[in-house]
Amino acid sequence: MLPCLPVNQRLGEHPGPSLEPKTNDHDPPSTEHEPPTTKHEPPATEDEPTPTEHEPTPKEPADEGGAK
């Protein structure tokens, strides 16, 4: 029984290193965090058309200056 106690204590120590592999288990959640990054890509695409829309904006005030 006494030797079983140290083994049990050793098992308690195992959770420590076992936590390391659990970190690998945290990798999957990291992949779940990647989708949000992909979701952030569409907004970047929306940012592209924004500059195009911003082009006519500066042209408008410039046109007003020319009309003046």
Give a quick rundown of the structure.
By secondary structure, the chain is mainly α. Helices cover 88% and strands 0% of the residues. It has a domain at 38-68.
Low-confidence stretches: none
Number of helices: 5
Mean pLDDT: 54
How helix-rich are the residues, as a percent range? over 70%
Order of secondary-structure elements? HHHHH
Query: What multimeric state do the chains show?
Result: single chain
Q: Would you report the number of β strands?
A: 0
User: For the CA atoms, what is the radius of gyration?
Assistant: 30 Å
Structural class, please?
mainly alpha
Categorize the overall geometry.
rod-shaped
- Taken as a percent bin, the fraction of beta residues is under 5%
What distance separates the N and C termini? 99 Å
Report the biggest beta sheet as strand number plus sense, adding barrel if it closes: none
Structural summary, described in words:
It is a single chain. It is built from 5 helices and no strands. The model has no long low-confidence stretch (mean pLDDT 54). The protein is mostly helical. The protein has a domain at 38-68.
Task: Furnish the topology, listing elements before pairings.
Elements: H1 4-13, H2 15-25, H3 27-47, H4 49-54, H5 56-67
Biased composition (Basic and acidic residues): 22-43, 51-68
Region (Disordered): 1-68
Features:
68 residues, mainly alpha, 5 helices, rod-shaped
